[in-house]
Amino acid sequence: FSFLLGLGFCYSIINGPTNATVLAGSEARFNCTVSSGWVILIWLSNGNPVLTVISSQGAVETSDRFTSQNYTSGDMFTSELIIHNTQLSDSGKIECSTQKTYESRFAFLSVQVNGSLFIKNSTLTVKENKTVEIVCEALGWAPAPDITWMTNDSFIDKSRYVTQQSQGSNGLYNALSTLTLTPMDTEVLTCLADIEALPNPQNATVTVIFDNSTI
């Protein structure tokens, strides 16, 4: 009976943080909800404590990049960890831990980098029956972007282009996609690069002008 009474004074993590994927430079937010009776709640990033919340005095912030907001609903307390100006190195395990019960919940943060995308020429003139290679270059991405091509709003079959990827010394990825084309008419080609954190793929376009003059 006394053992059961003791259980009444225990508290637990009701809801832990959930996985997040964000673009570098933006905010990442994680929630941790505990039941009443908690004393100290610690947030860790890749095993390193980044913020402590004490029930009697609130959040103890040691870095401008890691701040928090607190919410109380009934006998439940929610701590929201906010990571500002996220960096590639922030990717990894985000953990919410209670000191007394040594209970923890964790989630994973994926920070992605939106690089540059370009096709060197904005227009290209191609003679009849001539084959041309059009190169689309993606620089400084993380992870390596998924590259596709479109012509006049229709996707081009993947067999018509080859994409090569490489990783630089800075950990970022570059991609080079080469589309082989024998134009039959003037058309607008679009190269698209996509990663999960982007709301819409980045794109670069080129207008291929079909020249069937005999001169």
Q: What do you see in this structure?
A:
This protein is mostly beta strands and 215 residues long. The protein folds into 2 domains: 13-112, Immunoglobulins (Immunoglobulin-like); 116-211, Immunoglobulin-like. It has 1 helix and 19 strands. Mean pLDDT is 91; it is low at 1-8. Pfam families: C2-set_3 (PF22705), I-set (PF07679). Residues 11-107, 115-207 form the Ig-like domain. Keywords: Immunoglobulin domain, Membrane.
Q: Helicity, in percent?
A: under 10%
**N- to C-terminal separation?**
101 Å
CATH top level assignment of the largest domain: Mainly Beta
Unreliable sequence segments: 1-8
CATH topology of the largest domain: Immunoglobulin-like
Q: Any idea what the radius of gyration is? A: 26 Å
Instruction: Work out the helix count.
Output: 1
Would you list the SSEs in sequence order as H and E?
A: HEEEEEEEEEEEEEEEEEEE
| Portion in beta strands | over 45%
Number of domains: 2
SS-derived structural category: mainly beta
Oligomerization state of this entry? Answer: single chain
Average pLDDT works out at 91
Task: State the total count of DSSP E strands.
Answer: 19
Across the major sheet, the strand order is 2-10-9-4-5-6
Largest sheet: 6 strands, mixed
| Shape summary | rod-shaped
- CATH homologous superfamily annotation of the largest domain: Immunoglobulins
